[in-house]
Amino acid sequence: MFQDRPPQIYRALPSPGTRRNVWAALMPRRRRALARLGVPLTAACIDLAVIVGTTLLLEYVYAYATEAGVPASSQLRAWRLAGLLALVVLSVNVLRGSYTIETLLDRRPHLQRTASLWLAAWGAVLVVSFVTKTTTDFSRAVAAGTVLLGLPALMAGRALTVWLVRRLARPGSHSVARVHLVGYEEDVARFYAGNRADALGLRVIGTSYLRRPDADLAARQAQMDEDLELAVSVVRFLRPDDVFILVPWSEPGEVERCIDAFLRVPAALHLRPGTVLDRFPDMQVARVGRLSGINIGRRPLNLAEVALKRAFDLAVSLIALALLAPLLAAVAVLIKLDSPGPVLFRQKRYGFNQQPFWVFKFRSMRAEADAPFRQATRNDARVTRVGAFLRRSNLDELPQLLNVVKGEMSLVGPRPHALAHDRSFERRIALYARRHNVRPGITGWAQVNGLRGETLTDADMEARVAHDLHYIDNWSLWFDLQIILRTVVSRQAYDNAF
């Protein structure tokens, strides 16, 4: 039942029998408690040092440049600004658990979250300053410099923290969780085959193997009780932080017996229903009314995020239409002079929740009445001279700003495809339809990574869908700003444009 597997884990385990060996078995837990306390404190101190250091440095530089010295009022002003920024950043990070080892080991983009929090902290500073009528107390030059330089400094500090934690969080480290596994031999073997301890950020210190239950009910219960009694004894001696039950959920009786047995030991207890939930790293137990369930996916955007994204889309698209009106008029004239036909091309596409809408584009091909839809290819004879330039420069997409104003599209999101493509790929590519869980965009994460143009194989579309789903799962306003900037300046955004 308790076997030395894998061998390298048990070499360091003490053999029972002496006080010294028992004390040695308990020591890693004490060291780990100190390490797990030290990592969040270190991460918070790095953020604090970066914020205070950047603000004071800029205040001192500005004071020396304008006043040939650093008066006490400047020092007080700098400390007040740094303190307020640090209070917001550190408080939010503590509340959302950003300094825990598990969060720092997470593969999700730390820099995006840091940037969003920094902008929110400055919003809080402006609100507090307005309410207290102290906006004139702060130097505009120092404030602007802190916004611009503080963000990259804070990002560099977070990147350093993540790098250090990932370097230190090895299976032999005292800072990682000490885990004991319980399950049938084939389930434990499957766990070891599909997981590496260093990648998971934990240390497996023990494994208890359960025998497959006998067909006879009485014998099965006696056998399970014997196995669990031994497993509990081992867990009590090793004192792990967490116990993972690997018994599959298809055997509810055995799972219940395991739960009853290990609830008696001072360790966190976890159920592993199999590999299916590994697809959902953010799953959690949630309650809707009085009904509990495992939440494996939230709505793509909550109500606040929908309102924020819509306000951003509406403001930017209206400003863009006003500023680009002369360019739009000039393009319309060139299209009319180049070839007969309408200026705008309309085509029905699926939008949010697969609701059809008419998408607008500048016409870039010769008008062909009743011609069946056919995707544009390289050196397509249907593309006009002006149309070729519009497609290469992405200017043919500008009329979709009207779709954004109408609420049918967003500035950033998965690109809408022709209905024929949607129906075809939805049957062949898993989760393709999930692209319609948000509004389609004029540009998107796939496009700025060069995934656009003709889709010759399913693999082409699968790569595009993977990028679209990454955008949906990791949306932030900062992410939208990055994509918009890359749409304009990145060379990849213009790849495969023909």
TrEMBL record:
Family from the record: Belongs to the bacterial sugar transferase family.
Name of the protein this chain belongs to: Undecaprenyl-phosphate glucose phosphotransferase
**PANTHER family attached here?**
COLANIC BIOSYNTHESIS UDP-GLUCOSE LIPID CARRIER TRANSFERASE, UDP-GLUCOSE:UNDECAPRENYL-PHOSPHATE GLUCOSE-1-PHOSPHATE TRANSFERASE
Where's it found, cell-wise?
A: Membrane
**InterPro entries this protein is in?**
Bact_transf (IPR003362), EPS_sugar_tfrase (IPR017475), Undecaprenyl-P_gluc_Ptfrase (IPR017473)
Listed GO MF terms: undecaprenyl-phosphate glucose phosphotransferase activity
Q: Name one GO biological process term.
A: polysaccharide biosynthetic process
Q: Name one GO cellular component term.
A: membrane
Highest taxon, organism lineage? Bacteria
